[in-house]
Amino acid sequence: MNFFKYMKDQWSLILGWLFFIVLTVFVMWLAPNISVDWGTIAYLMLIEGVFLIFYLVGCYLSKRRWWGRLASFQKVSPLQNYLEGGHTEEEKLIEEYINQLIREHQEVMQEAISSQQDQKDYIDSWVHEIKVPLAASELLVRSIEFDIDDQKYTLLENELAKIDEYVEQVLYYARLDSFSRDYLIQEYDLKGIIQPVIRSQANYFIQKNLRYEIIGEDVSVLTDAKWVGFIFKQILSNAIKYTPDNGQIDMIIEKGAQGVAFSIKDSGIGIPEEDVKRIFDKGFTGTNGRLSKTHSTGLGLYLARNLAEKLGIHLTVESVEGKGTTMTLFFPILNFYNEKR
Predict the structure, then answer these.
(1) Superfamily in which the 183-340 domain is placed by CATH
(2) What is the pTM of this model?
């Protein structure tokens, strides 16, 4: 706080000083044996004004240290450190009040963190437990493959695949904050990452009679195969979902000077222009996601964008309503890695 702001806060003291000056002159004027000499009054005002200024400057200098401590305290994580250095009773009262708020905040945050960790542990446990009956259900469905109608069998497989995909979304969403403890960066062939994902979606390709083509030579990328596979699965799942029967999905690999661009281009219904900027927002389903036949959770692309950012991958989208959508994963070249080689 500078001196002018401090003086602005002392308006009541200055007003009180002026009141007592007027009161002194009034008493002198009422006293019968005292003659009012305006020169004496002016001299008295000057002396009292000097004392007032010295008092204000002294108070300002004594409090400036405290204000400086408060200002520096705000810059260095105020909710993680305690305030110290109060000398006057007023400063000690403020210091104790602020420290009490910090203690209460830390207790609440610790409870929230503990509760959140318990919830994450439960979700991880639930996901792993639910995968057992899911796997058993898949085996049971396969065991009755020749006992039921082909169409019903395909529908059962598709529904189980959807459940498995939603369970995976929950697991990856729970691990989003602890991503740094669950990834391994290595050099992988891009086609080696995407082909197992494509095979896992074979039923949907067959059911909708969709064609796909991988265009471009295989390249190596420095990344984590598991997380990239999940990201690609979310994008491919959307491409399949919003591409009409007999449509085409192209997967284009392009290597440039700055890195590798991997694009997933579909001939689907496209994304309305007003929705394009929001498709990566958590929970946003957009106009297409509200269609009765294409239910959406609004989590797939949100997870894809967040995981891509954590891996240093740039995920972008281009879409024309009624013509299709192109999602591009760009893997930049890491100079420091190349220099070591």
Answers:
(1) Histidine kinase-like ATPase, C-terminal domain (3.30.565.10)
(2) 0.64
